[in-house]
């Protein structure tokens, strides 16, 4: 019955000659955290700002809570955190949050929200004197103070120290528990893996993969080690169980994928011994979203 | 750790409450800003006292305060509605404040209404101070208070239109420089301190068409000579207001 939090079909956005968003389709479910993951310049901010009503699409359709993004009634239902700025430099921290709260019918208690984000000691500090991380947290506070149904967070943890990052993550998890839909952009795969129910990986304005973090990274694990470059992998592949894969990427870094267990480990170390090489930094780990991105695009996420 | 009930409970505040909240923030920002206060209060009051006490300029007979108070009132309107508003709004645009406010339930018309409310509020403070200083300096006002108030409202509309026109189209730095320059030029050439009769004959029609001259001339006619509402001034101000506000609505860029 309920329309999705966000539904985007074949979205196109151009700036002059360059195409920022190139036929993008995505759906963010209600009550879920959706992460839009991609490198800088992938079209994340353009996409989100069209959903926020700041920019207009050149083609395609966008529905936010079932409505056209520019509909005025969305302003009370949707919370927005811009990537940067948006606050007068001389405005004091608490003063800004109180001002924004007065635009809503039943806002959160601003003092409690400041305390929750560790900003109480800076309540009277002008915005321009806050650290980058404090400015980010104030913007996050302003995005949720009106008790919205849907929140757009554009790179919410960019430039945050680890502690502030965790405070932000906790708040996002609490929003989700409270039934708020969250759409966030990030280029940190750990953030997407940790927070999101649904991850949409975009590159050059298009979706290259989407799904839950687990479905994207797969259940399989991988074995990695470093050794002298240019080892012949043919023999190793023959010795490994069927369905395994081995590759050298980048030079001197070896990745073995498949049923990673004691047997595979034994096969690899035996092969290393036969080749007369010592495997350095040998470890078994799960594939990350970064690996997925690298595989899909041939490029690093950052 | 504080528990917060984040359960969605969306809703916009009543329109009037939003506008008052924003207007209050704008007034606080104006009164907190040192350069703005210099422009809106210190300079007008200094000009008024300085030139009332020291006969440095020829005001063409009559009590000096009678000539100076209406001019300084007009200057105060220009400093707040035009210079101050242009600079503040230009930087709000640059810092993304207008964009961020656009994501709240405060509509653009609500924001503009809040700005106008703040400008009128600061003008009221300026008027009280200037009138008090003027009375202390021997000013004897006459004429209709309502006619003077109407001229100030029209002047505010015209200067707000011109200020927002700059703020909404130029870079913030260009607005800062331009708004100060225009302030100085209009202070000198708009009949605020120096009667227009002192300027060359051929230049006068041009100067008389300036919004500042219409406002100073109109206020002077009403408050110092007890004239009825001067129609020429009203027409000049209405034309400036209509033209500039129409252009603002077409050209203003929020980002």
Account of the protein in words:
The complex is a heterodimer of chains A (302) and B (255). Chain A has 302 residues and is an alpha/beta fold. Chain A folds into two domains: 6-216, Rossmann fold; 219-286, Alpha-Beta Plaits (2-Layer Sandwich). Chain A has eleven helices and 13 strands. Chain A starts with 5 loop residues before the first strand and ends in a 5-residue tail after the last helix. Chain B has 255 residues and is mainly alpha-helical. Chain B has one domain. Chain B is 73% helix and 0% strand. Chain B has helices at 15-32, 34-53, 64-94, 97-101, 108-136, 145-167, 172-189, 204-208, 211-225, 231-251. Chains A and B meet through helix 2, helix 3, helix 4 and helix 6 of A and helix 1 and helix 4 of B.
Uncertain residue ranges of chain A: none
By helix and strand content of chain B, what is the structural category? mainly alpha
Strand content of chain A: 25-35%
What strand order characterises the main sheet of chain A?
A: 5-6-7-3-8-9
The assigned CATH architecture of the largest domain in chain A is: 3-Layer(aba) Sandwich
| Quaternary structure annotation | heterodimer
